[in-house]
Amino acid sequence: MDKVTGEALYTDDLTLPGMIFGATLRSPHPHARIKRVRWKSASAPDGAICITSGDIPGPNGVQLLDDSWPVLADKIVHHIGEPVALTAAATREAAQRALQAIEIEYEPLPPALSWEEAEQLEPLYTLSLNHGDIQQAFTQADSIFEEEYRTGHQEQLYIECQGMIAWFDDDGMLKIIGSMQCPYYVQKALMHTLQIPEDKISVKPAAVGGAFGGKEDFPSLLAIHAALLARHSGHPVKMVYDRHEDLMVTPKRHPSRIRHRTGVSKEGRLLAMEIKIDLDGGAFQTLSPVVLSRAVLHATGPYRCPNVQIFGRVLRTHTVPNAAFRGFGAPQVHFAVERMIDHVARALKMNPFDIRKINVVHPEDRLATGQVLDESTSAHLVLEEVEKITKFRRRWRSMERARARRQGDEPMRGIGLSLSFHGAGFTGLGEHRMRSPATVRLTADGRMEVLTAQTEMGQGCSTILPQIAAAAAGLRLEDVIAHEPDTAVVPDSGPTVASRTTMIVGGTVERAARELRDRVIHWAQEHLGTGPDLEIRDSEVRGPKGSVSPFRDIGRACYEQGGPREVTLHHEPPAWQEFDESTYRGVAYATYGWAAHVIEVDIDPDTLEPRPLKATGVAEVGRVIHPTMCKGQFEGGTLQAIGYALTEEMKMKQGKYLNDRLTTYIIPTMKDSPKMEVTFLDRPWQGGAFGAKGIGELPMNGAAPAVIQAIENATGIIPVALPSTPERLYRWMMEGRTTGED
């Protein structure tokens, strides 16, 4: 409600007594040796301070999967925009002026900026997955198809830029408040670099204006910068980026180069898939290994193939590091595999629906990891439902015929279909290692309060988690509140990522709320003389003879008289989920979300500019807890994926982003949004809260390939890269990349 009324306080709305402002001096070179750094304090604004890597008390690295990402460059800079020094002064303007008092001498070094140059360097990470006998399968295939697919950088473009405030209170406690997804990530990074114990650091989010993965890792770096300045100056320090700086230096979606070699039978059945995945990781590892992991595990799409060989690399370039973004490696590989499925269908003169129908996975099929899919598998069901709703099969044929008859400047219209899936929760044993705790407790006024580390950033977890607790305990929603995710108070229930909040954390909240309810009822029976066989319904405690008491009254009495006040439980992953992280064999995810998209487009015959008209989505995400929010997540993810397909790409020259302004980085607006229709199949999964799976990332995977297939259906041009801009479509047409039927 605070966001609706304008009362929500974002990082830049906050101020503290004596607060000063920080700024960052960044490298102008993609690769260079730092020969000398000089702080000319006499020419800086009064009271300004400067710190460099020599002022860092602990390791000079942001602790994520490792600490190879420097807090401040030391001796070598590895990308344009890499932080080299920090300043702080009384105003933002003074802090920026203070940057001019830092003199740095560089010796430029040769950068690696292209795929070919990156291959000359040691990869940041590699991963392979093998299933069956790939070579024998290729010898038995009736046809073999090969193609290379590429995708570019995509910017998260959250509505609120990165921001952080750091200060030390009178007791020496380091306090951080800012825009972030994962407060415990930030706390661990601060402990590592500043060498401060856990109980001396409190981290909590302010109101967060969107994230989409872009505030998973980067806030740790910014929090360290602000904390270093606060420690050095003795003042609270605010650092908030403007849009230009945010676009220029924050991680993006990994560009990809994906090579497919696919063997099929004459009927179109997949026999062998050899897939080589290259991701551009930028200068440092950050979260790239787990992005590659998910890419490898989703590379075959929701299709049955008995023989698979996948090899993935994260290549190093002298560019801004790439990291988390909604979908986390899956959108890139979904685009590639869906394009290859279309390639096979085209060559065998099959309808895109038919080839998917004969290859789609069903329960009891095996994935490339050897995982046997269970009854929660719904790829075939969403495919059948989207065909039932859209009549795709017939309409695709009709539009193919219309394209063949089209003359001159007659309108071009096409329709496209895609299938996608997304593993819910952390990969492999991630949830087993974390065993995320969640707490539900009574408040002094008799309500229940949910304590988790989940961050509200527009996706609705501050509503969903109390809603789950309320439903589990028999309370009205107004009798359950969520505590702000302050690391000094809430348990580490894990990051707000990986489509895990509702399914994983929500499931633990459900169990904890039920247990607290049962304990309160038992206490009331023993201490208040309420009698046996009590139940709580609609926030009323009801007895067998019709007696009714408000839960708040009993909850308040329980709290005041020393009864059970809180329950903390841990997530319990299924015992049957076994996964070998050395071979990538086993159950990578306990369950998956499944989706089908059908998207219709018009193409301007003069400019080749695509215009999406209608997007139909069918998804199975278990039990839908909050239909309105779930629909909003699916529609928003679909529109974001349409931008990925058609317009969004960070252009780069010599290691520097060229379109680092909102005027030049083009995203879809509501005026560009097609009409959307979303259908959810209600198939509760026993492992999630009230049967829920994850929803956040699934729609990002499938919409882009559906748009691209629609463009091919309309024009006969065969796109092999994202975004498929009018300029690229024209070039492919001139190069003869067409179906050959026009």
UniProtKB/TrEMBL annotation:
The molecular function terms of the Gene Ontology recorded here are: iron ion binding; oxidoreductase activity
Q: Show the taxonomic lineage.
A: Bacteria, Candidatus Eiseniibacteriota
Q: List the source organism.
A: Eiseniibacteriota bacterium
Q: Which Pfam families match?
A: Ald_Xan_dh_C (PF01315), MoCoBD_1 (PF02738), MoCoBD_2 (PF20256)
Organism superkingdom: Bacteria
Q: What is this protein called?
A: Xanthine dehydrogenase family protein molybdopterin-binding subunit
SMART domains given in the database record: Ald_Xan_dh_C
Recorded hits in InterPro entries, A to Z, give:
Ald_Oxase/Xan_DH_a/b, Ald_Oxase/Xan_DH_a/b_sf, Ald_Oxase/xanthine_DH-like, AldOxase/xan_DH_MoCoBD1, AldOxase/xan_DH_MoCoBD2, AldOxase/xan_DH_Mopterin-bd_sf
PANTHER family with a match to the protein in the record:
XANTHINE DEHYDROGENASE, XANTHINE DEHYDROGENASE SUBUNIT D-RELATED
**Domain Aldehyde oxidase/xanthine dehydrogenase a/b hammerhead, residue spans:** 5-110
